[in-house]
# Entry
Amino acid sequence: MKRLDFATFAMLGMAVGLIGLGVLSVLAHDFAFQWQPVPKTWPAQAALGTVSGLILLAAGVMLLAPRTRSWGALAAAVFVGLWVIVLHLPRAVAKPVDFASWNAVCEALAMASGAFVAFRELRGQSARAAIWVMGGCYVIFGCTHFQYATFTATMIPAWLPTRVALAYLTGAIHALSGLALLLGVRRRWAASIEALMMTAFVLLVHVPRVATHPGDRLELTMLFIAVTLSAAAWILATSRAVAGLAPGEAAYARQAAVSAS
# Structure
């Protein structure tokens, strides 16, 4: 499959994740649990939750159509980016040594960054800054797996052996993939390995859990968050940002770097 075709498939995966999250919020008139930790002091929670769902739904629907795909990606990047700034960062700064808070920051940031990469790709531009942002997020994911290995092991299907060891292994893959992105070592491979692992999480962890509890909104939310994170990782893996450019493309790379700054 060609790179462009695979990139389009990844963007459609992000559309599915966003539409799923949007539908859940609209039906429940509520936010996406801990991924949108809106303070209880905010007024009109039900109305705001519904509006949030409609925004996610609209962004996802726009991502489905080629003519509106770039605007859907931009809407997703901006809206989920607001989760980072308004909802997650204040909580993380208040507890600077709490990996769970920073993991929440990085989950939202990785989704927003993947959407931003999609927007830049659809405009024929590179988003090289996203390499460092998403690389840093993956390192934090790895550290969180190490810190909460026992809990992570409970998420792994019971039929798999040595689940605690697998929790550490997946944490190591997160961290090493992130470091490779940050250090410029085989970036395409690192992003692809991360994307493959996240896709495995969707298929081996979240789909079976939803199949067991089909009406559980938390399980459905976790599934669609995982789908969106996986899609974001694939968008990065198929992007210009991690591509090794041929000598004739050097001028383009310089121009893209100027555009991204």
Remarks:
- Residues 9 and 185 are 26 Å apart (CA to CA).
- Residues 3-28 form the longest helix (26 residues).
- The radius of gyration is 18 Å.
